């Protein structure tokens, strides 16, 4: 099968990391293109990965099988409007990673459904650990326009930098944003607090840091490599009358479950608000 041509609009953090992931997966560099206004960023991308770069979005996406929108939400409408004729003429898969951008809004900008073959649209929500190829992303395919091959192409791009899941209800992208999109910060917060508590209890800062980070990494690795649910793993390391039990009881007495649920719901509500603003822009 012919290697597909992937064209990235936006070569910033996410664009660069997806390009790096695809190259790492063996995707040929001559089939990857990136456009961005910053010549230095483009030079780095070209030198590091050998990909074709340019600052003209229209020529970058000409002939591409997949166009990846990797620009900030503030500029995405202008970017799409600038390339819309090429999209309509060539009908590549449009994969948007723009946070909060609903497929319905993108559809409105690209062109209404029902007038001949449509430009297929997939929306994805990656997260920052994609930068170290340990991301978690959810994807949503617009109903009706996206075929099996499009799904596979979109998934292969996100899978190059981590794990993927599909959601079939676009409203769940706000939940995903609250969980895995913002999630790295929750774990950073916990690490920060554990490390600080360790230091306040007498550990050297560098020891507290190493012990905290390796514990977080080890716990995540154990959970990922096991079929056992987290609650059971926790029970297995919580001996009755032991130290862990005391700590867990303290967390629970302080209402950790309701804090976590409230925090995620607040993030989800904010994601909905930001998405609505983008739709009105
Ligand atoms: N980073 C994450 O962890 C993460 C997670 C989930 C979703 N996302 C989404 O991914 C998208 C990109 O995020 P990012 O962190 O990669 O942002 P970023 O580092 O700012 O990258 C965006 C790039 O697009 C460039 N750009 C601006 N206007 C352009 C135009 N007209 N044509 C082509 N390129 C243009 C920017 O250049 P200038 O800087 O010169 O303007 C910048 O290099 C965002 O929509 C964000 O919501 C990011």
Report on this model:
Strand 4 (66-69), helix 4 and strand 5 (93-96) form a beta-alpha-beta unit. The chain starts with 5 loop residues before the first strand and ends with a helix. With 281 residues, it is an alpha/beta fold. The protein has 2 domains: 6-169, Rossmann fold; 183-271, Orthogonal Bundle (ProC C-terminal domain-like fold), CATH 1.10.3730.10. Helix 7 (172-181) packs across helix 12 (256-280) and helix 8 crosses helix 9 (205-224). The chain is 56% helix and 13% strand. It has an 8-stranded mixed beta sheet, with helices on both faces. It is elongated. The protein has helices at 13-24, 39-49, 57-61, 73-90, 103-110, 148-159, 172-181, 183-200, 205-224, 230-236, 243-253, 256-280; strands at residues 6-9, 32-35, 52-54, 66-69, 93-96, 121-125, 135-141, 162-166. The site of NADP nicotinamide-adenine-dinucleotide phosphate (NAP) has 27 residues, from helix 1 and helix 4.
Indicate the proportion of strand residues.
Answer: 5-15%
Classify the secondary structure makeup into a structural class: alpha/beta
Which radius of gyration do the C-alpha atoms yield?
A: 22 Å
Helix fraction? 55-70%
Average pLDDT rating = 95
Number of extended strands: 8
Query: Mind describing the biggest β-sheet?
Result: 8 strands, mixed
What compounds are bound to the protein? NADP nicotinamide-adenine-dinucleotide phosphate
The CATH architecture of the largest domain can be named as: 3-Layer(aba) Sandwich
How many structural domains does the protein architecture include? 2
Query: What is the CATH level 1 assignment of the largest domain?
Result: Alpha Beta
- Count of DSSP helices? 12
Q: What coarse outline follows from CA principal-axis ratios?
A: elongated
Instruction: State the fourth-level CATH superfamily of the largest domain.
Output: NAD(P)-binding Rossmann-like Domain
> What is the fold named in CATH at topology level of the largest domain?
Rossmann fold
| Secondary-structure element series | EHEHEHEHEHEEHEHHHHHH
Strand order of the largest sheet: 3-2-1-4-5-6-7-8
Poorly predicted runs are none
Termini Cα gap? 40 Å
